[in-house]
Design a protein that fits this description.
Distance between the termini: 40 Å
Number of strands: 12
CATH architecture: 3-Layer(aba) Sandwich
Bound molecules: NADP nicotinamide-adenine-dinucleotide phosphate
Strand content: 15-25%
CATH superfamily: NAD(P)-binding Rossmann-like Domain
Order of helices and strands: EHEHEHEHEEHEEEHEEHEHH
Shape: globular
Helix content: 25-40%
CATH topology: Rossmann fold
CATH class: Alpha Beta
Number of helices: 9
C-alpha cells in the first residue's frame, strides 16, 4: 500500500485530501505545524525519514492574502522556503511531491482561461510567494506534480461562502466585488481530482477548479438565495472601492483542458458543487 504524508493536514484542503486518499487505498499520515514545520529543513527531513512516504501531499501554506502585503517575510518563509525544504527532503528520499499553486500567479489580463504555460505575473505579495514556491519546487529537483487551483471552499475552515452566510445572518450589509471573475472550487472535488491525477501518473503543472465561471458578487447572491437569505442586503462593489490591501487578478479562470486530457473526465460545474456543499450545512450555523 502506498504511503502518503500530508503537510498542513488540518487546513481547508489537507482535511479533504485525507478523506479522499484513505478510502482510495492509501496509508495516510496527516501532519500540521506542531509535527512538521515546513520552514525547518530538519523538520521536513525528520518527518519524511520517519514515515518514509511514497508521496508527500504538501498543503501547508501561508494563505492570508491581505495580511501578506505587510508580512512578506512570513509568506515567503512558509511558501517559498517551506516548499523548497519539502522538495529537497523528497528528492533525497525519492518521494513524489504533490503541491498546490494559485491563480494569483496570473495578472488577470489574458481574457481567456489560463493554460499551464501562459505567462505569469503575480500582482500581490501572496501571488509572488506562490510563484517563488513553484520555482523552489522545480529547483529542488524532486519528482513533482503542481496543481494550480483557485477560490477554495469546503467544510472545516474559514472560507468565503461561510463568511457570507455568517455576516448575512448577523444582519450586516454586504459589499462584494463584482469585477473579479474566477471559479469557486469545492475542496472535496479538488482532492478527488488530485487522486485521479496521481493514479494517472501526472507530473509537472496541471490546472484544476470546478467548471464554469462567476464573480464573487454573483457567488454571494447564489449562496444567499439558496439559503433563504435573498432579502439580505447585498451590493456589488468595484475592487478598488473595497478595503482589501492585496491587488487581485480581474479574470483568473483556469483552463481544465490538460486535466481532462490526462484523466478523461471533466470537473463538475461550480454551481452543482456549491449546491451540494450548501445542502450539507446545518439549516442555520451558529454565528462565529
Ligand atoms: N484557499 C484558497 O482559495 C486557495 C486558492 C488557490 C490555491 N490555494 C493553495 O492550496 C493550498 C491549501 O490551501 P488551504 O486553503 O487549505 O490553506 P489553509 O486552510 O490556510 O491551510 C494551510 C495549513 O498550513 C498550515 N501551516 C502554516 N504554516 C505552516 C508551517 N510552517 N508548517 C506546517 N504547516 C503550516 C496551517 O496551519 P495554521 O492554520 O496553524 O497556520 C494550515 O493548517 C495552499 O498551497 C494554498 O496556497 C488555496
Amino acid at each position: 500500500m502506498s504511503r502518503v504524508l500530508i503537510t498542513g493536514g488540518h487546513g481547508l484542503l489537507g482535511r479533504e485530501i485525507r478523506k479522499v486518499f484513505l478510502p482510495g487505498g492509501y496509508d495516510v499520515r496527516e501532519t500540521d505545524i506542531a509535527e512538521l514545520d515546513v520552514t525547518s529543513p530538519d523538520s521536513c527531513r525528520g518527518a519524511v525519514g520517519a514515515y518514509r512516504p511514497d508521496i508527500v501531499i504538501h498543503c501547508a501554506a501561508y494563505t492570508a492574502v491581505d495580511r501578506a502585503e505587510s508580512d512578506a517575510e512570513a509568506a515567503f518563509a512558509v511558501n517559498e522556503a517551506g516548499t523548497r525544504n519539502v522538495g529537497v527532503a523528497c528528492r533525497e528520499s525519492g518521494a513524489l511531491v504533490v503541491t498546490f499553486g494559485s491563480d494569483y500567479v496570473f495578472d488577470g489580463t489574458l481574457g481567456r482561461p489560463y493554460r499551464e504555460d501562459d505567462p505569469v505575473n503575480p500582482l500581490s505579495v501572496y501571488g509572488k510567494s506562490k510563484l517563488a514556491a513553484e520555482e523552489a519546487l522545480r529547483e529542488s529537483g524532486c519528482d513533482h506534480l503542481l496543481v494550480r487551483t483557485q477560490w477554495l471552499y469546503g467544510p472545516g475552515g474559514k472560507n468565503f461562502i461561510l463568511t457570507i452566510l455568517d455576516k448575512a445572518r448577523q444582519g450586516a450589509a454586504l459589499r462584494v466585488a463584482s469585477d473579479q471573475t474566477g471559479c469557486p472550487t469545492l475542496t472535496k472535488d479538488l482532492a478527488d481530482g488530485v487522486l485521479r491525477l496521481v493514479r494517472a501518473g501526472a507530473r509537472g503543472t496541471v490546472h484544476f477548479s470546478n467548471e464554469g465561471r462567476t464573480t464573487w458578487y454573483d457567488l454571494a447572491r447564489f449562496v444567499l438565495e439558496r439559503c433563504g437569505l435573498a432579502a439580505a442586503e447585498l451590493h456589488p462593489a468595484a475592487t478598488c472601492d473595497l478595503p482589501y490591501p492585496a491587488p487581485r487578478p480581474a479574470y483568473s479562470v483556469l483552463s481544465k483542458e490538460k486535466y481532462r486530457g490526462i484523466t478523461g473526465v471533466s470537473p463538475r460545474p461550480w454551481d452543482a458543487a456549491a449546491e451540494e456543499f450548501l445542502s450539507s450545512l446545518p439549516a442555520e450555523r451558529p454565528n462565529a
